[in-house]
Amino acid sequence: MNTKQHFRLAVIPGDGIGKEVIDEGLRVINHLEKSSNGKFSFETDYFPWGCEYYLENGKMMAEDGLEQIKNHDAIYFGAVGFPNVPDHVSLWGLRIAICQGLDQWANIRPVEFLPGVESPLNHPDRDHLNWVLVRENTEGEYSGIGGRNFTGRGPGKEVAVQSSIFTEEGCERIIRHAFELARTRKRKKVTSVTKSNAQQYGMVLWDEVFERVSKDYPDVETDQWLVDAMAAQFVLHPEDLEVVVASNLLADILSDLGSALAGSLGIAASANLNPDRKYPSMFESVHGSAPDIAGQGIANPIGAIGSAALMLENLGLQNEAELINKAIRETTKEGLLTADIGGKNSTKEVTDGIISHLSKIH
Ligand code: ATP
Ligand code: MG
Fold first, then answer.
1. Of 146, 213, 276, 301, whose CB has the highest number of CB atoms within 10 Å?
2. What are the contacts of 31-35 at 24+ separation with CB within 8 A?
3. How far is the CA of 273 from the centre of ligand 2 (A)?
4. pTM reported for the whole predicted model
5. What is the pLDDT of residues 148-199, one digit of tens each?
6. Distance 348 CA to ligand 1 centre (A)
7. Isopropylmalate dehydrogenase-like domain spans which residues (predicted)?
């Protein structure tokens, strides 16, 4: 456990609502810092990277950007994306550059159902459903390997190739991580998801590694699914899910499904972990920059505040992380909700509600 009590955060607000929700997460952290009576403190360094930076400088982050943030204790990240910058430029230029560059190979995405939040799911035990997606975060379908116009046959006949990489070591470390996480939960179960009937090399290797690693965890229940069937399972039998481990692309898709089922992309938190602790981990909401609602003060701050809780947990402040999660639940239960989850409160009002519950329970 990290015993250091002064933490240096690298803050990358990014674009659109990323900037708005990051401010809210930092307000919650400041509140906890003030009421900790000197038990812990934070120092924040801001990095103005993102699409505006790209439009001025032709790149999404500073040339030596990874050097500038690699010695911080954690990275708190908003979102990137601008209507006039192609999504693959913004994603690869910043978010994936950091995840791959700082070897943040485990992306943890809890799916949490909150009391008082409208959900498209009609389930008798809805308020108590929760599971965690463990997403491989450095290889798989996001290898960046391939190319356009392979045959040189010209417009209308173009062939593009996009390759995936599955290394045995990469599969093993993320699968082990999922098993270790399962051991910390009430129900010890890991579900592995692939499409190994159609992707017959990399995903078959993944399945083999899963079967081998599972032998080291006889106390953990397992099952293996194809992603199409798992998508249906998310909707039909979410009570059977506990820890779900999948490749980069498949887990990304399933996590949007999970957060939409829970009510909104706006409430989903995530952690990009370097479990080896050689580099800082990065904490961000699952949602993107949402240009359609940016600047209106109506973005849901819960995903970013929940990500701040994951960050505090990673820094060894488990109690404070739990307090935040409790305060979030109290706030939604009370009916303080932004528009995406059926309410009419502003971003700021929801955060104020969370902070006032923190003051009550702290
Ligand atoms: P990006 O290109 O950065 O991924 P996007 O247009 O795909 O942006 P997302 O942020 O991924 O947008 O979200 C899709 C939609 O979900 C948004 O258009 C927005 O309406 C809604 N949404 C996402 N996050 C939030 C939030 N925090 N609060 C309210 N609504 C949200
Ligand atoms: Mg998006």
1. 301
2. 31/355, 31/358, 31/359, 32/312, 32/320, 32/323, 32/324, 32/358, 32/362, 35/358, 35/359, 35/362
3. 21
4. 0.94
5. 877 777 778 888 999 999 999 999 999 999 999 999 999 999 999 999 999 9
6. 18
7. 8-354
